[in-house]
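stuck on this fold:
=====
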Amino acid sequence: MDMTYAGTRRIIDVDSHLIELENFLFDTASADEKAMLPSMLDQQPVIQKRDRLELGREQFLARQGDAALTAEYEAQILDNSKVGWGRLGAFDPVERSRAIDLFGYEIQLVLATFTFHQFYNDPDPAVREAGARALNRAMGNFCRNDPRMRAVGYVPLGLGPDKAIDIIDAGLADGCFTFAVDTNESNAEGRSFTHADFDRVWAKFVSHRMPVVSHVALNGHYDPVSPSFRNNGRVFHEIGDDAPAGEIGVMAIANSVQLFLGAMIYDGVFARHPALRVISMEQGCLWLPGWLRMIDFTANVFKRLRPFEEMPSITAKRHIKVAPFAGEPVGWVIEQIGPEMLVYASDYPHPEGSGDPIGKFEETMTNCDQSTIDAFYYNNMAEVLHLSDS
């Protein structure tokens, strides 16, 4: 076989996506679910990009049976200037398997993109439940025929622990590997997800040996940036898609996951579930050095009021993995925190993953030894996925 993008590296890709066609949820949804869910085409970002969706569909159809055109697209697999729907395997599982062949990844976790928003913001809990069930079924179906693809579904914890467990059980039966969760409850009167009532949910993750996924934009509508910052007399810039709005929005991209992970430590969730693991995706890694110091500092502030069996940073390093953005100074972060927390993510086929994530990561890792590099690409996630003891 020709050399892959990974080359001789063993790589687990912890964050990749589909860029769905409009019927992705509806193709596997029940009649009742279809009746509740709006069309993906009603979303403003999709309305604005409808021509790109149609172009991607046309390009996919043109590739079928055309070996020369397919070879052209395969040769350009790293070209992230192409429209998302036009990239190899964006919405077709057979092509996605071929894309993984070309990348050379041993495992790739796969999440949705636009279909989250068909139900995520709906105030009706029945719609959110129907959407989660349909999404999990569709994701499991997409990844079913390639064991390298691990479907990441979604469980809306705000529906309560009983519903959450039922949705997880159904999603596992439908082929999901694990599930993303919100960082926080959007209802100020609701229970924190670190409340003991949710211990049954975290125990479910542990019993199935699956990591909890925290992904950008799944944050219970938490907004760390006051709207008044927009009243600055200047042009307001938005990157679009799941990126927070404005420059200071991007600065605060990891605020909700920092609070969530801190609560998981301080409220004893990791202590009660020693085998629980969490992966933070598309929320960067530059915050980690200061955050690890802050959670220890906070514990010291409260030391006369409550005991800690170990420093929170030690707990964090054992239970949490973080996927950096391509372009962040990964080597510097590892120098500050050690080699055990960071894991590789391509974000394919989203353009923010860059056209050369390996290159962007490694240009900042020149001082890392081979064991540290191996941990980043493979070994840290191999521990989470229990590959060494399977």
Notes: The chain has a mean pLDDT of 96. Strands lie at 12-17, 107-111, 149-154, 178-180, 212-215, 278-281, 320-322.
